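We emphasize that the prediction below concerns an isolated chain of 377 residues; any contacts that depend on oligomerization or on bound cofactors are therefore not represented. The input was used exactly as deposited, without trimming of termini.
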Amino acid sequence: MKRYLDDLVIKDLHQKLVIVTGPRQVGKTTLAKELMPQFKPAQYLNWDVAQDRKILTAQSWLNDSKLLIFDEIHKMNMWKNWLKGVVDGRPKTQALLVTGSARMDTFRHAGESLAGRFFSYRLHPFSVKEWCDLSGAEPRHALTRLIERGGFPEPFLTDNPEDALRWRSQYLTGLIRDDVLEFSRLREISAMRLFVELLRDRVGSPISLNSIARDLAISPSTATAYLEVLQALFIVFTIRPWHQNVARAILKTPKVYFYDTGLVRGDEGVQLENAMANMLQKHIHFLQDKSGREVGLHYIRTKDGAEVDFALTEDRQLTHLIECKVNDNNLHGTLKRISIEFPQAQALQLVGNIRQPENKNGVLITDAAEWLANLAA
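Result of the prediction step, given as a token string:
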């Protein structure tokens, strides 16, 4: 199945090393292998496979391969320097694709060893936009399925809802048991599991790591480390309130969302908000990775504690103010107030089950699914 990044990855492979990261089982390996027929001969090598690991260590892959695919090599000791040597020593006719389920995009902050040598993309679960483009589905049907199943290919595509539930149970258990242990030095798996369970109940609300630490009888620094590991493994992501002073915004309380909307506990409103956060995050990552645009995803929180669910920015300026609702066409008071303060930003109230679209006091109240179907990815 063709994914939304396929054509971009193919184009960039003719120029530089391409790195594709994203959550486990989001479709990175499938994407990579489906590109192989266009680069014959091609070779796929996975660090998790013992025989492939020997070939990678010895660098004994076929020299005439037009495409080399390295999967999970971030698990190799000193892999950054190793990969730099491979990039610099390969034939000019050989394309190189690297995939991984941990934050290999930290290259951007890891010194100059690969500077100028790579393009990177973050592969996300299915969105309303992608599924409508692929299947011709109606946006509202696509949104309903995404909320019920999450956007990961296996549970999303299965015809049996029970299979989706079984996949999700095994997926979360495996991530915590295997990936967290392998990626970090954390060994308190029971505490990490409880930490994840607490986050599942707090989606869409500003979280206090100090409060969670007290609940779990761990230190605040440990709670912070847990959250950083979950972000690095693409299990959760955070958004922070927008502030014109960047430093102050970084210190503000974050909200946490799951890449797999199916993991969210809460009512239909919370699930819709998580699904929307996922798709907005996918949208801004696509614009960043494809075009290098300085776009961001935040939320708005006023001094009196009132909130607007999401705010999109470009070049540190607000471009969109977004409130999501399941059924309510009544204009959200804080959204109205903030939209007056920042008239340059488009104010939107996205409704899951809308009666009629309206324009109230400069705020567009419109169908959530239809709007999401027109995002960049």
